[in-house]
Design goal:
Belongs to the LpxK family. By secondary structure, this protein is an alpha/beta fold. The chain contains 10 helices and 12 strands. The protein is about 30% helix and about 20% strand. Strands 3-4-2-5-1-6-7-8-12-11-9-10 form a 12-stranded mixed beta sheet, with helices on both faces.
Length: about 325
Amino acid sequence: MKPPSFWQTPEGRPHPLARALLPISKVYAARVAAKIARHRPYLAGIPVICVGNVTLGGVGKTPFTASLAHRLKRRGRSPMILMRGYGGRLKGPVRVTSTHEAAEVGDEAVMLSRDWPVIIAADRPAGARLAVEAGADVIVMDDGFQNPSLRKDLSFLVVDAAAGLGNGLVFPAGPLREAAGAAMARADALVMVGDGPVPDALGEMTAPVLRARLRAIVPETLIGQRALAFCGIGRPQKFFDDLARQGVDLVATRAFADHHPYTQNDIAQLSSAAAAEEALLVTTRKDRARLSPALCADLVEVDARFDLETETPLDLLLETVLKDRS
């Protein structure tokens, strides 16, 4: 879904359409709050670390999830990534393998499974049980911040600093999944990706604020080359800007909806346009996960890296939760 423009008006100055939708938003927010309050979460028996957000759309959760898995592995842990499998038809619980496609388990699960063990499960407790059976000693849950079915030992709320919280209102009047203050009250840390202030709607900060950057890792062989870049992610322009900033000669760009299911015709048209410009065809690692191997032969894949400004606060949080649950 493409976010409506009125979601991005400044906080405190809602668009007339947003004001008209406020009664529905209040009902929506109340239902989310009631669901969280009344649920008895399942205890997995191993630490569960949740990476979530309060807005609809991409903010950098999945790269941060991969970064956490890497840190845990360095500590001698055996992490399992648990996801819903957004965009896939399987409900799970299923351990993702190299034979799975994005249409089955979602593009993010396919992408992460190249490097990490991944389970997709609409039923998070069932997914946690499978993770324990598979030998995991810690679960990193990508998304699920508003899902109360599984007990979380450590919760990170990720916010894109450039986009902020839009108009600060709950869906459908705004982009929020729940009231911002309520979400922040359950978070153990706020992760701000990019430059920008902490949104006022989150309230007074008592939890640590981790500053981070998410940037494309451009292969050296691509620098100075003519390229047609395409992607279907939360913030496509950021990807294009990263490429240009790092020396890629962008002759054209194509932005698709987030999680867009590419067809053979899509790739044929993109390949034809790139050939006409004598350019390379470039996309993100996440987008490539949605393409069959037969359509990837001439693609240049660009990965992303998640870097924290300082690592000490995160290390302390991980040390505390792992020590308490060891």
